[in-house]
Specification:
Elements: H1 8-34, H2 37-49, H3 65-81, H4 83-94, H5 106-137, H6 150-167, H7 170-179, H8 185-190, H9 192-206, H10 212-247
């Protein structure tokens, strides 16, 4: 912050540079993922296949649909694979606006952001998807058999996993909002009841399925992460006080 403010054009140029690097990394990751596309297909369909009736299978309804579905799998897998590099580029974009001692937090930011992002995806994959699919498939009968489109299934699953990955970034967001003085632990505690309401609204928006079961499964970990964010906010405030005392 001791540097002169950058003009808007410089910010836009910096943003373009970071986005180009992210896209290049995603492109390289896509090529890598394409070579293991069959394994990725097995991984992404496992939560559904494990609960489908014996002899069931997924379908595709258009000639190019299966091809583009594989491309979509590889693209999203590349996003997950290159997430550490993406978070690093995001940090490099915002770091010019930070104090010199704050710029040293690049490693904690990248590691914590990546860990929480992947943790959210893992939570959605192992905890949410199997019971959600089991619940939906349980309505099949002798006269009502599931014939699931691979395209629709993939769109539902990837949106849900991506939503969980992003929502698990809540503690990191709260920590850095506290660092720049936008929120405080006292404010977060005081507004807890409103935060709970907002969390359930966000869960309803982010989940591609309108069922309450899936939305609750997303809201519950967000409530825990909000409380973790309050703890991190207190820690950030203590560090600010210590640095202020040292400066005096």
């Amino acid at each position: 912050m001791e540097e002169e403010k950058m003009p808007l054009t410089s910010h836009l140029e910096e943003l373009r540079k970071r986005l180009v690097r992210i896209l290049i990394a995603v492109g390289v990751g896509f090529v890598v993922c394409y070579y293991v596309r069959d394994y990725l297909y097995y991984v992404i369909t496992r939560p559904l296949v494990s609960v489908l009736p014996k002899g069931s299978h997924m379908i595709f309804t258009g000639l190019p649909e299966a091809f583009f579905v594989y491309m979509k799998i590889c693209f999203f897998a590349s996003l997950f694979l290159t997430s550490p590099f993406t978070f690093y580029q995001l940090w490099k974009f915002v770091s010019p606006g930070l104090y010199p001692h704050e710029r040293r937090y690049v490693a904690p930011f990248v590691i914590s952001s990546t860990f929480l992002f992947l943790l959210g995806i893992a939570f959605g994959y192992f905890i949410v998807l199997p019971p959600a699919f089991g619940f939906f498939v349980s309505f099949s009968t002798d006269f009502l058999k599931p014939m699931i489109s691979f395209k629709e299934y993939l769109s539902f699953s990837l949106k849900l996993l991506f939503a969980f990955g992003l929502s698990f970034e809540l503690p990191v967001l709260i920590y850095f909002l506290t660092k720049i003085g936008v929120v405080s632990s006292r404010l977060l505690k005081k507004q807890r009841r409103y935060a709970i309401l907002i969390i359930f609204i966000i869960a309803a928006i982010l989940t591609p399925s309108p069922d309450a079961f899936t939305q609750i499964l997303m809201a519950l970990p967000l409530l825990v992460l909000y409380e973790l964010g309050i703890i991190l906010a207190k820690w950030a405030e203590k560090k600010k006080v210590v640095k202020h005392e040292e400066a005096q």
